[in-house]
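hiii so um. not sure if this is the right channel but i have a protein structure encoded as tokens and i wanna go backwards to a sequence. like what aa goes where. can anyone help
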């Protein structure tokens, strides 16, 4: 993660209190009590030195809030194209796991910092997040969107200075086919700022398939597998989202209101097509995600066969018509 250049926080002296004159000791205790009244002036861990200045700015995080945000995003990578400056006062930063985008599910995190001190701004919002692919087909062009969470929100047990959403890209960028991401940013209620970014979306490694579609009547749905690169041998909680194609197709594909059950049958095509025991179907949770259990007994390529059932238990996709995710662990 690229660090924000800012003023270095001064370290406290190492004088032992007993070596001070009594009047000096009283003065020191008074100063410590005074400075402790503003949590924005607390001294942070060594990781913050040279990164954030805690100057009591009421727009910015306290020391503890800043520490939580910093320790979270330090494990991510910034997406350079998502950085922007607002009103010469704020800096917008977007992060993913590795600083890039790929076909299928991508977690995205946003923070806004104050340029003068590098600290995280507590009050900002992002709305109208809209990814659009423009495909050049000879002399014609075609545009469509892709599945998204539909909102950019805070994370549980984390400061509001850290926002999260996800986008599941249907296809990779090419020289002719381009992704654009537009959204509105409101910082400290200073009004909306429209941002528009050209994104590079990479294809998945050969043999991997983490996003599939199916149709029910005239409606098209998309199955986005969440973070398959984190699956390991043994029993895993497996998550996915079901999104519904919008009309017009340039509007984001939001989560489907319909309720499905997704049966899974993991197989290893390179190992005699054997399966594994103790798998549980994905069912819809209160947050809109689908969750189940998958048992991956060894490393290698797994084809996760899918059977989608409607609320009444009728098979609407998969079954005799192959529908699957391919994942290598």
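sure thing!! here u go:
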């Amino acid at each position: 993660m690229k660090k924000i250049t800012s003023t270095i926080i001064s370290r406290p002296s190492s004088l032992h209190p007993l070596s001070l004159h009594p009047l000096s000791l009283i003065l020191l205790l008074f100063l410590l009590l005074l400075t402790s009244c503003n949590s924005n002036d607390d001294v942070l861990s060594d990781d913050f030195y040279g990164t954030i200045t805690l100057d009591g700015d009421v727009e910015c995080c306290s020391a503890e809030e800043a520490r939580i945000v910093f320790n979270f995003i330090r494990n991510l990578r910034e997406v350079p194209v998502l950085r922007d400056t607002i009103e010469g006062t704020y800096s917008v930063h977007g992060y993913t796991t590795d600083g890039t985008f790929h076909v299928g599910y991508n977690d995205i995190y946003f923070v806004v910092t104050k340029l003068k001190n590098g600290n995280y701004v507590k009050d900002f919002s992002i709305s109208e997040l809209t990814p659009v692919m423009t495909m050049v087909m000879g002399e014609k062009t075609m545009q469509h969107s892709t599945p998204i969470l539909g909102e950019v929100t805070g994370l549980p047990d984390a400061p509001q200075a850290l926002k999260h959403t996800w986008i599941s890209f249907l296809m990779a960028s090419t020289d002719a086919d381009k992704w654009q991401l537009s959204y509105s940013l409101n910082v400290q209620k200073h009004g909306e700022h429209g941002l528009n970014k050209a994104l590079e979306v990479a294809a998945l490694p050969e043999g991997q398939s983490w996003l599939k579609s199916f149709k029910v009547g005239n409606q098209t749905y998309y199955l986005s597998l969440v973070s398959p690169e984190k699956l390991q041998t043994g029993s895993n909680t497996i998550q996915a989202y079901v999104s519904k194609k919008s009309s017009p197709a340039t509007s984001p594909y939001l989560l489907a209101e319909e309720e499905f059950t997704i049966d899974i049958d993991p197989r290893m095509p390179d190992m005699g097509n054997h399966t594994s025991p103790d798998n549980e179907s994905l069912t819809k949770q209160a947050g809109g995600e689908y969750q189940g259990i998958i048992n991956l007994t060894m490393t290698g390529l797994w084809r996760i066969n899918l059977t989608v059932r409607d609320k009444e238990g009728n098979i609407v996709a998969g079954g005799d018509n192959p529908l699957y995710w391919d994942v290598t662990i």
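oh and The longest strand covers residues 124-137.
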